[in-house]
């Protein structure tokens, strides 16, 4: 049950970060979202989104930009009921001052080293959001999911200060949660 709760928390985190913002800090982050859509042929698209976050890392100022858009050039994904979905591409750009540290357009195939090919063929790239900084660099949470379900694979993208990238599959988020129950 605990593992199931962890698996449900990443999409909520993605939605919270993508749709929410810190009030009073418009200069620190901004978000833009459009409504999901279905065209005349019944093809469904997720909303386009844009998130910008300013980050302080090792006494230097960075800006993180994440842009998600449906991409018609990618193969469409069908669910078990035969509904068709347009897959997404997501641009992640990290800058320091006027210098680009990292700039990559992700598709679900960028995660083929950590996600099974069968799962990838039936899934779409749902989202990437800035998560935190660690001594290794900037950590982004990502997810590849079956369309319109809670079934997804949580992923972690770490970008170093010099622009190198490490992609890992996240099994559990136990480092973020304690097993201890508060005593009364």
Quick synopsis:
This protein has 184 residues and is mainly beta. The protein has helices at 2-19, 117-121, and strands at residues 29-33, 37-38, 43-45, 49-57, 60-70, 77-78, 84-85, 88-96, 99-106, 124-134, 137-145, 152-159, 165-169.
Largest sheet: 5 strands, antiparallel
Q: Regions with pLDDT < 50 over 5+ consecutive residues?
A: 1-35
DSSP strand tally: 13
Q: Average the pLDDT over all residues and give the rounded result.
A: 79
SS class:
mainly beta
* Gyration radius, rounded: 17 Å
Secondary structure tally, helices = 2
The arrangement of helices and strands along the chain is HEEEEEEEEEHEEEE
Q: Tell me roughly what share of residues is in helical segments.
A: 10-25%
Strand content: over 45%
Q: How far is it from the N-terminal to the C-terminal residue, by CA?
A: 25 Å
Shape summary: elongated
User: How are the strands ordered across the major sheet?
Assistant: 1-4-5-8-9
Task: Label this structure with key terms.
5-stranded antiparallel sheet, 184 residues, mainly beta, 12% helix
List the helices and strands and how they pair.
Layout lengths: L1 H18 L9 E5 L3 E2 L4 E3 L3 E9 L2 E11 L6 E2 L5 E2 L2 E9 L2 E8 L10 H5 L2 E11 L2 E9 L6 E8 L5 E5 L15
């Amino acid at each position: 049950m605990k593992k199931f709760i962890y698996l449900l928390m990443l999409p909520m985190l993605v939605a919270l970060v993508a749709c929410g913002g810190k009030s009073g800090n418009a200069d620190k982050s901004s978000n833009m979202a459009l409504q999901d859509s279905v065209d005349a042929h019944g093809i469904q698209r997720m909303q386009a989104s844009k998130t910008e976050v300013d980050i302080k890392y090792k006494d230097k100022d960075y800006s993180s930009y994440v842009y998600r858009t449906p991409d018609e050039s990618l193969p469409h994904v069908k669910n078990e009921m035969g509904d068709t979905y347009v897959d997404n591409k997501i641009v992640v750009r990290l800058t320091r001052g006027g210098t680009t540290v990292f700039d990559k357009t992700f598709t679900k195939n960028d995660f083929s080293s950590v996600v099974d090919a069968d799962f990838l063929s039936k899934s779409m790239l749902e989202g990437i959001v800035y998560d935190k900084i660690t001594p290794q660099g900037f950590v982004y949470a990502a997810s590849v999911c079956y369309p319109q379900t809670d079934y997804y694979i949580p992923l972690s993208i770490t970008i170093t200060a010099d622009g190198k990238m490490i992609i890992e599959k996240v099994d559990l988020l136990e480092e973020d949660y304690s097993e201890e129950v508060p005593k009364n």
